[in-house]
Each structure stands twice: as structure tokens, then as C-alpha cells.
């Protein structure tokens, strides 16, 4: 057998390509049997695509996945019980340490590692004019865009590398605007090449379109965001249903047409309810999962957010009220990722939803409100699927009031899924949040880890660190 492996050397990504021709997996690299990238054939591209997706999973798992939820006002966390790690009492205590606190370096490395694999695939297909592989080209472009979008949101400017050479070694980072321009370019090239949605485990036309709509919304290009969101809503392959909310967090979710893109981790060697996001978000004792697993009990929802769910809202099934000695009272724990509410402890895969159809409905509603229009159509469609009370246009006295309601609905829908911090920035809530904690806008971003700056001395640290 032969093996293909992709090696990350930050900030440049050099793919030392190896391949598992027999097992059809890229999770068992054997350096002693590896082959160079010049030996790759077109038939190897599907395996490289598989490896590219695995690289996303390699760092966007339990700890980094929650970074921007704990950063925001949605989640309160005393994870570890140590003030300089995850203490909401002061903002700095919630910040990652430059020496890779809070999974900071893992977040950065996983994105760049996936980008490195995507670069190889893109350049290989293009340089060999392999038009028959254009769907794979689209997937690689979309994953590269996703990686740079996450990096731009987290760090602002980062080094942009599009090749396999040495152009990114010891080079100052590109600007934040340049990073997002790269994301836009890649997604616009990817969308026409991609297939329509069939599985959440690969990038589809609809997933990439919604990702571009998200980019436009956060970049305040509302007309374009609204147009793309509407395209996704009208896509015949997708369905927003009452059964698919909790189902989106299951590993085995056959028939789900609402979860557009995810990464999964597994199989893992320990029981599902003893590690991963179950451990992070679930209550501590006396709560126990199906096989006796207990979470840390140190992370819970903002009480205002928790109180905003209606009694019949199916999303409330993913919440659990329990006394916490750490909080000194009853708090609300998030159970989206927990075995007791969703799947048996025998499941050994963790699920991390990244793009869901409901976002398109809320983007379309938000765009209308930003233009001064109160139109509850898309808002109600989502609430009907969540078994929540429907509203009329007359229930909101003005477009700004409706916009406030859309913000609340986004919090209820996406809590724990990493979108809140960008929402706070878009709604102009982030700076007051920071100011109240004695900080300023420099803390919109994460710091570059010390190890990364030692690799690239020209990489300038973000201000404030």
C-alpha cells in the first residue's frame, strides 16, 4: 500500500503528499512508505479531498470550536476553575494565552493545514487542466475559503499562501481586507463548480453560497447577502423541518436536508459522553450520561438567553437546568452535543455543525430589516419549524425593533455554534461589551501564538497582546 499525508509547516503549508490506496483513508500516514507530490496521479485526488476535510477536523474540535461562544455574551464559562483560563468575571480571564491557551494555536494550525491540502489540489488540477475533476476543484476552493474566513474572523490579517512554494515563509501578513477578498474570490470560483447538496460531509453549491452570504452580511454588503440567502432558501435539495434541528447534531442523521456542512471527529477511543463537547458543555454531578459520563459543569448559557426560549420551542429540548455549586445557583446547560439528549453513549463520533440552512432564513429577514422593511415571512418559517409562536408584521413597531428580534432569534438558534461573536460585531454590541470590561477594539481578535511568531519573525502580533 501507499500513503498520502499532508504536512503543515506554519505559516507556509508544504504538502508532502502520501496516499492510502488500499484503505481509502488518509488517517494512517506511514512516512517510511510515503511518496512525493510529483508521483500523485489524478486517481489520487478523491483521497486527497478526504484528507483535506480531515485536516479541518484536526483542530476545530472541542476546545477551539467554542472559542467565540465563550468570547461572547452567549456563554459563561469557568472551565478548569482557574481564573486565568475561562473566568467570565473579567474579559482578560476569558482571553487565550499567547502560548496557545484556549486552543488558539490549534484553531490557527487546523485552518492552515486544510488550506495547504486545498492549495495542492487546486494547483494540481489547474496545472494539469483536469476539467473532469472540476467538482473536486470547487470543493478545494470552498474549503480554502472557509479556512481563510475563519482565520480572518479570528486574527484579522494573516499570511495568504496559494501555492506550494516558499512564498509565505518569513513574510508579513496580508491585511484583513485582503484575506476576505481572497475568501470572496475563492467562493465565487467554487460555487459554479460544486454539486448540489447531497451530504453535509462535503462542500456543496448551497453550503458555499450560504458561506458567501455570511461573508457579505458581516462585511455589510446586505443586498448581495440577501440575494444569496434567498437562492439557498429556494434550493430544491434543501428542507427546513421540525425534525431536523436536534437531528443536525447526530452523527447518523439520514434524511437531514438542513445541515449543509459539518466536520466529525472519530471514531474515538473513549465513550461518546465522556469527552468532546459533551464534557465541555454538560453539567457536572449529579448529572450522568447513559454510560455514567459527567461533564465539567463549568460552562452554561447566559440567563437572559436561556429565559428567551418559549415552552414549546423544540430547541429548549437541548437545554437543561441544574444547580451548580460553582455558580451558586441553578444555571442552564447546553445539551446540543450531549449523549443523553441526542444519541447513545455507544456512538464514538463527535459532530460539529458549521453551516445550517436556518442561517439563510435569518440572513434574508435581517437584510430586509436593515433596509427598513418589517417582513416576518422568513422569520416565521424558521419559528414554525422550531414550534415557536408565529408573529405578524404588526407585532413590531419598526424595522429596528424587528432587527432586535432577529438578533435574539439568532442567539436561540445558533448558541454554541461559534457565530455569536461576529453577530456582536455586526450589531455593534462587541465594543460596548469590551468597554464594560475595561478593554478596547484591539480585543476583537485573537493573538498569534509565540511559536508561530518564532517561525515567522515578520508576523506582527495583533495590537493589545
UniProtKB/TrEMBL annotation:
Compartments where found: Cell outer membrane
Stretches assigned to the SusD-like N-terminal domain: 49-217
Entry keyword Transcription regulation: no
The entry's keywords: Cell outer membrane, Membrane, Signal
A GO cellular component entry from the record: cell outer membrane
Domain of life: Bacteria
Protein name in the entry: Membrane protein
Amino acid at each position: 500500500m501507499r500513503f498520502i499525508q499532508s504536512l503543515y509547516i506554519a505559516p507556509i503549508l508544504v504538502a508532502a503528499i502520501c496516499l492510502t490506496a488500499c484503505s481509502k483513508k488518509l488517517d494512517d500516514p506511514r512516512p517510511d512508505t510515503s511518496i512525493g507530490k510529483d508521483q500523485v496521479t489524478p486517481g489520487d485526488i478523491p483521497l486527497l479531498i478526504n484528507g483535506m476535510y480531515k485536516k479541518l477536523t484536526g483542530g476545530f474540535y472541542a476546545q477551539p470550536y467554542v472559542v467565540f461562544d465563550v468570547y461572547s455574551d452567549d456563554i459563561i464559562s469557568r472551565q478548569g476553575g482557574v481564573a486565568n483560563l475561562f473566568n467570565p468575571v473579567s474579559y482578560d480571564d476569558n482571553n487565550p494565552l499567547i502560548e496557545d491557551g484556549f486552543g488558539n494555536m490549534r484553531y490557527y494550525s487546523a485552518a492552515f493545514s486544510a488550506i495547504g491540502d486545498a492549495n495542492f489540489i487546486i494547483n494540481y488540477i489547474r496545472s494539469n487542466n483536469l476539467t473532469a475533476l472540476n467538482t473536486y476543484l470547487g470543493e478545494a476552493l470552498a474549503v480554502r475559503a472557509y479556512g481563510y474566513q475563519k482565520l480572518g474572523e479570528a486574527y484579522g490579517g494573516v499570511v495568504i499562501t496559494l501555492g506550494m512554494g516558499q512564498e509565505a515563509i518569513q513574510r508579513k501578513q496580508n491585511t484583513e481586507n485582503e484575506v476576505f477578498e481572497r475568501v470572496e474570490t475563492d467562493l465565487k470560483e467554487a460555487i459554479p463548480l460544486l454539486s448540489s447538496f447531497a451530504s453535509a460531509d462535503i462542500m456543496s453549491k448551497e453550503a458555499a453560497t450560504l458561506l458567501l452570504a455570511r461573508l457579505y452580511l458581516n462585511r455589510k454588503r446586505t443586498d448581495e447577502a440577501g440575494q444569496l440567502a434567498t437562492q439557498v432558501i429556494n434550493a430544491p435539495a434543501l428542507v427546513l423541518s421540525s425534525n431536523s434541528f436536534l437531528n443536525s447534531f447526530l452523527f447518523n442523521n439520514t434524511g437531514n436536508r438542513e445541515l449543509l456542512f459539518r466536520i466529525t471527529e472519530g471514531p474515538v477511543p473513549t465513550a461518546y459522553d465522556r469527552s468532546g463537547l459533551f464534557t465541555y458543555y454538560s453539567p457536572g454531578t449529579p448529572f450522568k450520561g447513559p454510560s455514567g459520563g459527567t461533564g465539567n459543569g463549568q460552562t452554561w448559557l447566559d440567563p437572559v438567553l436561556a429565559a428567551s426560549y418559549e415552552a414549546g420551542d423544540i430547541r429548549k429540548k437541548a437545554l437543561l437546568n441544574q444547580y451548580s455549586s460553582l455558580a451558586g445557583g441553578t444555571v442552564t446547560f447546553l445539551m446540543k452535543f450531549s449523549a443523553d439528549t441526542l444519541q447513545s453513549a455507544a456512538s464514538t463520533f463527535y459532530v460539529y455543525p458549521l453551516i445550517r440552512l436556518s442561517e439563510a432564513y435569518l440572513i434574508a429577514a435581517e437584510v430586509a430589516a436593515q433596509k427598513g422593511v418589517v417582513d416576518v415571512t422568513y422569520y416565521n418559517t424558521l419559528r414554525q419549524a422550531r414550534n415557536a409562536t408565529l408573529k405578524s408584521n404588526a407585532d413590531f413597531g419598526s424595522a429596528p425593533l424587528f432587527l432586535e428580534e432577529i438578533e435574539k432569534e439568532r442567539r436561540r438558534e445558533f448558541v454554541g455554534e461559534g457565530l455569536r461573536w461576529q453577530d456582536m460585531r455586526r450589531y455593534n454590541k462587541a465594543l460596548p461589551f469590551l468597554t464594560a470590561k475595561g478593554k478596547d477594539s484591539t480585543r476583537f481578535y485573537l493573538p498569534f501564538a509565540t511559536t508561530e511568531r518564532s517561525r515567522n519573525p515578520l508576523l506582527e502580533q495583533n495590537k493589545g497582546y
